[in-house]
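User: Modeling request: complex.
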Amino acid sequence: MIKLVALIPLFPLLGFLINGFFGKKISKGLSGAIASIAVLASFVVALLIFFELEHSELKSHTVNLFSWINSDTLKIPFEFLVDPLSSWFLLIITGIGFLIHIYSIGYMHNDEGFARFFTYLNLFVFFMLLLVLGNNYLIMFVGWEGVGLCSYLLIGFWFKNTAYNNAAKKAFIMNRIGDLGFLLGIILIFVTFGSISYGEVFSMASNGNEGTVTAIALLLFIGAMGKSAQLPLYTWLPDAMAGPTPVSALIHAATMVTAGIYMIVRSNVFYSMSEEASQVVAVIGVATALFAATIGLFQNDIKKVLAYSTVSQLGLMFLGLGVHAYSSSVFHVTTHAFFKALLFLGAGSVIHAMGGEQDMRKMGGLRKALPVTFATMAIGTIAISGIPPFSGFFSKDEILAHTYEHSPTLWFFGQVASMLTAFYMFRLLYLTFYRKFRGTHEQEHHLHESPKTMTIPLIVLAILSIAGGLLGLPEFWGAPNWMHHHLDSIIKIKDPSVLNHTKEWTLMAIAVLAAVATIIFAYMVYIKNQILPEANDEKLKGIRKLVYNKYYVDEIYDAIIRKPLDVLSTFFYKFMDLEVVDGIVKGVGSGVTGLSSIIRKAQTGHIGLYIFSMVVGIILILFYSFIK
Amino acid sequence: MLNGIPINYYIMLSAVLFIIGVVGVMARRNAIIIFMCIELMLNAVNLLLVAFSTLHNDPSGQVFVFFIMAVAAAEVAVGLAILAMVYRNFKSIDIDLLSRLKN
Amino acid sequence: MLGLTTTQWLFGILSFLAIMFALMVVFTRNPVNSVLYLVLTFFCIAGHYILLNAQFLAVVHIVVYAGAIMVLFLFIIMLMNLNADSEPRKHIVTRIIAGVIGGVLLFVMVGALKGAEQLQLVQGGASQIGLVKNLGNVLFHEFLFPFEVASVLLLAALVGAIMIGKRDTNINEKETINN
Amino acid sequence: MKGLFIISGLGILAMLAEIFKFKKILYPLVLVGILAAYACNFMEWNNNLNIPMFNNMIRFDNVALAFSGVILAVAFFWFILANDYFEHDHITDHFALVLFALVGALMLTSFSNMTTLFLGIEILSIPMYVLAASRKRDLASNEAGFKYLIMGSFASGFLLFGIALIYGATGSFDLMEIRSYISQANGSLPTFFYAGVLMLLVAMCFKVSAAPFHFWAPDVYEGSPTVITALMSTIVKTAAFAAFMHLFLVVFGKVSESWSMVLAIIIALSLVVSNITAASQQSVKRMLAYSSISHAAFMLMAILANNRGFASINAILYYSLAYSIGSITSFTVLYNVSKQDGNTSIEAFNGLGKRNPFLAGCMVVSMLSLAGIPVTAGFFAKYFVFTLLIGTSFKWLIVLAILTSAVGVYYYFKVIIAMYFKPAKEEQKFVVETSHILLLALTTVFTIALGIVPKYIIEIFG
Amino acid sequence: MLVGLLIIVPLIASLLVFFTKGKASRNLALGLSVVEFILSLVVLLQYKHNPGNSNLMLNCTWVESLGIHFAVGIDALSLLLVLLTTFLIPLIILSSFNTTYDKPNSFYGLILFMQMALIGVFTANDGFLFYIFWELALIPIYFICLVWGGEDRGRITFKFFVYTLLGSLFMLVGLIYLYNHTGFDTGMKSWAIADLYQAGKALNLSQQSFVFWCIFLAFGIKMPIFPLHTWQPDTYVNAPTQGTMLLSGIMLKMGTFGLIKWLLPIAPLALEKWGGVAIGLSVFGIVYASCIAIVQKDYKRLIAYSSIAHVGLIAAGILSANQQGIQGGVMQMLAHGVNVVGLFLIADILMRHTGTRNIDKLGGIRSMNGNFAVLFLIVLLGSVALPLTNGFVGEFLLINGVYQYGAWVAAFAGLTVILGAVYMLRSYQSIMLGERRDSAIAFGSLVSTDKLVLYIICIAIVAFGVYPKPLNDLAEEGTKLIMMNLK
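Assistant: Request completed. Predicted assembly structure:
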């Protein structure tokens, strides 16, 4: 079965091709079905492979398709790697991907770009699978850029809207910035180790010197920053909410944005070897977590809130990576995939019901109208806030515990971030589903629960969000941490430090209490004294205004990057190119003609002058030759 | 005849005559005078040739002078014809007037 | 006297006169006069020829130049009745410059024409080369070909002079435009 | 040798034609005669029995024959070009003069004695003076003839002075003797000998119109009737170069250190002045005059390289052939164009690409050749010069040559641009007489053929 | 012999076309160019079958006494570029079917003549022959631009001509200088490339530097490298579309190809000393041109500048003189050739359908013709070197090669990855996306020929991005050869 791993990306590719070429001809239902079945098929295959791998002794299998790029010593085969890590990610991608496909059938049913949407979605799945399946960094890079392209296409899916197009372009370009780092990292790997295939590189990694390894680690991390929306390259992700909600769920919450984590876990050797790099990762991670969480506090757009929470969750995961808690991060990736997808889809269902309205200030009291959505979303919210025994609690706690081992300071900030998360998530829940409806009348009239195609995925995800914790029950409960064992084989350098149980218990307690406290606080604010966010943004003052406007980061980037670039370009074009470089050329031309019109004056037509010149010439010649 | 004169004297003499001719060509505007100055230059050369032929005791120098004379005659014939024609058209033989062709 | 031989006296005087007259040719205003001065110059040069034992050449020289060419000049000048006041004059500056340049030219020539100091003219009536017989021999043996070709030259000059001089019977005006 | 006689005979015949009333057949007669002379040249090729002759007054060795071959060929082309030029009164005189000029030219290829050199130059020049002035009513023509005459005779003054000095130093007019004398004297020559050499250099530079002795050329070229200009820029130039080459490669080659630097400076000056001045010319005729100066500079480079053996001679031969053919073509086109609306300015060429594509095409080829673009003859000509010069210490001249020839491209292409890009004043096509079409076709093909198979010329002397 | 045929066929073709009239000439031209393409495929097979095949070598003396031979031959590199040429020419001709030029016979004749010269350049094994073909390629394109170009073509084409001619003349001097140093052992000077290599290596540093700069000037102008580029945008904009395609798609490759085959092996010492300067210029050119492209309004001009940027990277990679750099250069030449032709065709289509190339006046075309939008997008992705498009392989290898020369240089050069995305997406967005502008109203479905060409190009882009092996193996092989000569 493992030999047939190529089938996994093949199915979505086929789906893409069919929908791409015949999408317009066939009916909506059919194209939706084709797309979903394609993903389902690869999910099945992935599942089979997963279990086969579970039972096989050999934990990593490579499947060679064809040799792709050869240049002397640089040999890059098009080769797949099946090992615990990739197989796990395969499951997440195809599984959640399938659910979201189903959901989309309902969500997009009356969009004229229906077929196109599924084309893109399949293409995305294909590239994402490529990303995790590749057996060398370049294949990963292929998937990496591919998913970037798909997110570009899907963010700008409604291409008539300029704002959406700008968001798409921003996403692509910011990713490209990261990708350049990634590319250079790959090249440095090749230059250092003479290969970019995982196996060979990791086996040789130990004899690479400290500095180089750090450089590699940091370059790769730049790539991760772009893809996984870490400071300072995160600003594209909130804008990316321009895309249809299923896209936000699949790409910008569950899968693509976690590619960065996948990459770092994949190359954990480098990070375990280089403490500096790890620290950078950890600090950036926690900073992002905190920063995004604060912004999340005051957002009124339901999807924006979720977006910032995603950024902050990703920050937490990087924090985990920074402290070498690789399996914990993967664990959190998984649980996060469950409940964040759930939350987005729920939000989608809300928006669907509200007829496209995304502003929470115009919602409220929807729990009667949308019972299923409400229930599932509540579960998601609890999960993300880290209330046991929901999945989020275990994964987050594991990361924070490991963080504490390395540095209590980081742990503290991480803890604060998760408190904030709990706050704004419940704020979202309260503002959306509780109290009375604040929208217009016809909206109220149209309120309705979403169709089955949309609710079923919600329910499934809700179950997963509840039960997800079983994947990684803490060791000190005596329970087996399945995730930890599963990924054991790919973690090259183990983290020796262990915490004593009492400490772990205390941490866990603190976390839970903090979460509960914030939830109660949120309840006080939004239910008891019925506070509403400021209706119009201009009235905001001081710190709140600053936070509400996302610390003006976009404006700052505008000021320090885009504007200077434009100025520079205009300078290059208008001055350097047209005036200086071309000017010199023109100058030579006109110089010649000018000189010419001067010299020709010498030809006065007077014989006298001609004779003079001749005689002078002779004199000079004789002088030169004889009077020395 | 009697005792010698250094050849240098002759060289200098003809050089001086030649240069006077050149100066004449430069300093005058009347085409005819210019012509005469050119004749003067030629004669300077003739003198030099004769001097050398005596020096080398070799007649060919003097024979060459004949050819120069022939050529001079021919040149003058043609030259004066052209001058006459120019005079017919321009009503003058002032060389500075003949400067239609320039630049 | 002054330790100079007759020849040297003659040479000196003749050279002086030749240069004098040559200068007059250049600097007299009236064309007719300069023609006459030129004739005088030629006579001096003829004198030099005789000094150099080139008697025949001297005679020919007088005949050709003074006798033929200069007459031609005079003829033309009369034809155009040029005289002192009709004579165009270059600007004084130009003439000064011309003089200066002449001086410089002389200077460099003096520099250039070195190398003959030790050479003395072979003297004495022994030299027969200047005589007609001798020259004739050389001319009609060694220089036969140039002599013949010279005839072509003279023919060409002849034809040219005629063509220029002769009035056109029919002028097709097309050719007068400059192409 | 016989060629020389045939041509002079033709000249005399032409003179008599008026009297004996065979004007009509004169033109074909001349063409046949030239072909006959050409045939004689061929026969004399490689049989060295007939050199030297007339006690070494002239020697028709292979080099001489090759150059006379070029001159005769070009002369033949020229007569075809000039056929209707003779269609007015005293045609016979023109014929005679041109033929006599040809005699002079042939002498310049074969002279072997200062006497013949001097006579050759004069026989070539005097008819040219007359021909330049041959438009008696046309003031420009008058002026041209007059200027040419004054400057020419002034230059021959220096020529003679140089000859006299050299005679004084070596005691002979015979080039072979002078040469052997130089090689015996090895260095112990009197100073005034070198002065003589330099004066000869000056005089020759005047004849080939190299700066600063070039001033006469543009005026004379512009003033003379177009066909005469063609004659000057082809035959007269070729002959002058044959003479120049013979003097300074064969005879004074050994004392090159005394003149090479001077020549180099003269070349540099000519390159700059000619090309830059040509850039702003409005009259194509005058532009071609300046271009001829720059080509002269190129040929002088070959002499400057002063290559023992035949390389330099080959280069000059090839160059003069290429250049002559090229300018015959361009002058033929110019002649036909200017016949339309009577001026030789560049505007006259506007829209020629539409009005007469054939003429335009030929002009393009000739311009490319003159500009030295592959695979035309002109390119190879320049290429040979470069290959010669790069071995010497005058590499800087090559760089200069390249820079200036870029300017050259500018003015050659002005014509092309005018023909294909500028709109014509009047669109109507015009016809060219068959003889000219044939001539153009011939020369154009020749130009390209020379470029594709240069070996037959370049390997001519083995 | 076969290689001789490769050169003769287009020549004959051009002559034949000259004597046709109207539509016939373009159809004939298309047919013959296709024949040539098939011929080149035959050559490919021959080569695959036996690289040393005598059919692939031709060497007959031209001017014996000067050591000039008509020596042409197929090796891996030249084969690739010949294939590129023969592949693109039919497309270029096909792309012209919706524009009617007057005097079509001369137009297509010139194109075919140029094909002959280009193939000659790529196959020449004799320095002199190389130069001849080099110049021959210049003349037809000059006339194409002069006769069929846009406004003000007189001045611009002239600038272009003089610029390139000046460069190539210096190259001639450099080559002659080498030629002059050949044959000290045999005593017989020769233009054969092997002898030139030998002579070049024998020179000392200063001599090599002289040769290096002389030759580099020519190639730098042709490509063009940063300070020598000002002829290029004007010419591209003014030339007729087919002329631009020829210039950017194929002719530009003469320069890069020349760098590989006629510069690197000749002056290794000089390369060590001056390579840094040259690479610096190229790399600066990348950022410089990309930035300028960002602020361009005329789409054709934008492509022109983007092409400068791409070529800068190619040159930098080649000059870094290592396996990856050179091989990447070769791959990128092929990719860029195809992509840029596609882009210029798109510019032409825009011009024809909307009457403007100003990207501010365009917009919303996607909603008129989604099909075109997709094709456009694919070509665009190819030129921003997205993985699995042909552009990526080359770009990866190039940056890799430059990195081995200097990490920071590579980082700077890598900015093209970002800036390229910036100007390409920006232009794509404002041309295709957003609300429909008035200019797009008339935008119907594409003409069949345009569609055909675009499809072929897109297929090539994807196919050789996913499976570059066939080309890549040749490139690798050819590069190894060069690397051996560099030792």
